[in-house]
Write a structure and sequence with these properties.
about 10% strand, 5-stranded parallel β-sheet, 3-stranded mixed β-sheet, single chain, binds adenosine-5'-diphosphate, alpha/beta, globular, about 475 residues, binds magnesium ion
Amino acid sequence: MHEKTWASCLQFIKERIPGQSFQTWFLPIQPIKLENDVLTIQVPSQFFYEWLEENYVHLLRESIKSEIGDNGRLEYSVVVDRGDESAKPFTVNVSGAINSQNKNRVNGFDKYKNPQFIQELASDSNLNPTYLFDNFIEGDCNRLARSAGYAVANKPGVTSFNPLMIYGGVGLGKTHLVQAIGNEIKRNHTDKYVFYVASEKFTNQFIDALKNNNIQEFIAYYRNVDVLILDDVQFLKEKEKTQEIFFHIFNHLHQNGKQIIMTSDCAPKDLKGLQERLVSRFKWGLTTDLQQPDFETRMAIIKRKMQSDGIDIPDQVMEYLAYTIDTNIRELEGVVISLIGHASLTREEIDLELAKRVLKNIVTDIDSEVGIDYIQKTVSDYFSVNQDDLKAKTRKKEIVIARQVAMYFSKDYTNHSLKSIGYHFGGRDHSTVIHAVQSVNDMIDTNAKFRYSIDELKKKLKIRSL
Ligand code: ADP
Ligand code: MG
């Protein structure tokens, strides 16, 4: 019964307000019961309740009147962490008051402007002026994200790309791109207040605000922003309170046509540990990813870097670098910078020889971090076998496979000789290692599932080596 009544109320409301507001403020409401003409609805938080009372009370009353009659009334039940029993309920007590006596405070809030506080929180937009569209090289790997970003930069808050969510692995250019959007907006729309913040910093600011009892100022500050850029939202995982506050800020900004731009190291659906209602909002706008740059893009990035540093190096060297470093752009840049540094210190010409030497030094650094022991541990964890069995005599099939895979990675990721690798696997000889590497290569060619496992393991091993 209550469901049906609420459905009719929703219909009534839907016809009278913009779709976005309807989605934000009415869809999350659950009808609980209808008794004696009193409809009880459940709202996700205190703040939500306040917002409804502040902005939609008349509409709600009208809808109740039209569906239940003149005697109809509305009651709220406020929950905070619906669907997550393990998390401690948390109420964001935004105004300290939910009734009309203190309404001014609630209202005063929106219009809150206190330059001094703002200065404390952030002296400017936090944007790095060197991250621009101009020096963000376009390639297949980033075309969609780049052009969506460009559209947003020209019409912040107006396109359907709101929020704009850009995800991708480490060092693929997320921060560069979102900062470029911010800088471009500042250039085209001098009246807009753009604000960039890393999620980690946002979390710390929030914790400070909690400690110092100025949550109100914190929220008010963020509500005043025209363009909010929140970098690395995966950092908010498991941080219930911070998510809660961000949810409210998000809703407020979105509702008011303000632009929200976010980045994450994985697709929204894989953001485990983030509240579903938050993730579902991320999907309202456009979600797009940055992929690993292809060879041409890597070449273009190196060229650009060399040009801006006024350095000339043979194409052959650039090709060698672009070919060898295919993981991410940060790493690529790192190598290019070392190379330039090296050449200027020793006054050597940058030739292939030098490039190889410099690269080898860097690769050795990586190797020293990923040792055979670490590989054995990662691989045995992955295949759920005992690490000691990799060194033992057992010929059980799953152990043999894990052992061979660990040998294969030891050869690829460390500087150990075949002999030394054999030694670390229970004193086997080098021909066993050669055989293992061959078997693994064969299986990679013939077995898709196995190939997938190897890719997964590569990711795990690489993450540590960066
Ligand atoms: P992420 O935030 O994804 O970890 P960053 O934005 O910090 O990556 O990028 C790492 C480095 O690579 C930065 O120095 C950035 O300028 C550079 N970079 C990334 N993508 C590009 C690109 N398409 N063109 C030029 N430089 C890039
Ligand atoms: Mg980043």
